[in-house]
Design goal:
This protein is 36% helix and 15% strand. By secondary structure, the chain is α+β, with helices and mostly antiparallel strands. A hairpin with a 2-residue loop joins strand 4 and strand 5.
């Protein structure tokens, strides 16, 4: 688990000495010392700076992507108490091009043992480049449902609230089932999520179903409608409800 800023000096950075900052376009990269002096000490702010930087680079090069994870929750109005990394999602067929773009900008990008994402480093913060969410490849339709929202001063596509919660709930399993981490997110986004669509997408998978029951008992969401089918079936991709 990553340490907080007061436990780990933020000036111990890798892969940023040659970073071409998005604001500078194609100009020369700043010296490593200059980057260090301008970076925030607060860990949450450092994560936001990394998200802004990578999002700006991907926007500038015209990549199809969406912000995910705790920074996406923040963009939708959630708490600024962020997790240990930044998450972006994109289609599997775009993985090579995204990696090339970030390497050209001066970031280190590598493939971890997991075969559903790449990892990068920006300003000493871990950036996950995810091309499979909720056990399904990231699709064009999912990215098209993303909403243009500001991450502080930078607008970028952010997963819709329903897709965002789905990506968290569908990841529950016998080995990873931390309801406490997702509960505050569900509470924050409760009015923005299409819960019926989310239930249909998860089917009767036991872990998501248990979480929905948990939310019902806490009066976060209403009970399932009587007409909702809860028979076991294959999960399917979400279809955002008409607005």
């Amino acid at each position: 688990m990553s340490q907080h800023a007061d436990d780990q000096a933020l000036d111990q950075r890798t892969g940023v000495a040659g970073l071409r900052l998005a604001k500078g376009g194609d100009g020369p990269a700043p010296a490593a010392d200059a980057v260090t002096e301008t970076l925030p000490v607060d860990r949450n702010q450092a994560i936001l700076e990394a998200a802004k930087q990578v999002g700006s680079i991907l926007k500038r090069e015209g990549h199809a992507f969406a912000l995910a994870g705790s920074v996406a929750v923040y963009a939708h109005g959630g708490s600024a108490n962020l997790q240990h990394d930044v998450d972006f999602c994109f289609r599997p067929e775009d993985a090579g091009a995204v990696a090339d773009t970030l390497r050209t900008a001066g970031l280190s990008v590598y493939a971890p043992p997991e075969d559903w994402l790449l990892k990068a480093d920006c300003f000493g913060q871990q950036v996950d480049l995810i091309f499979e969410l909720a056990h399904q490849p990231v699709s064009t339709e999912l990215l098209e449902r993303a909403q243009q929202l500001p991450v502080e001063s930078v607008f970028m596509p952010v997963l819709s609230p329903t897709d965002l919660v789905h990506s968290l709930v569908a990841a529950f399993s016998e080995h990873h089932c931390d309801f406490g981490a997702v509960l505050p997110i569900a509470r924050t986004l409760r009015e923005k999520v299409d819960w019926e669509s989310l239930r249909r997408a998860c089917g009767s998978d036991p872990m998501p179903d248990a979480f929905f029951y948990f939310l019902e008992r806490l009066d976060v969401i209403p009970p399932a409608s009587p007409h909702e089918q809860r028979e076991p079936r294959e999960p399917r991709e979400l279809k955002e409800a008409p607005r």
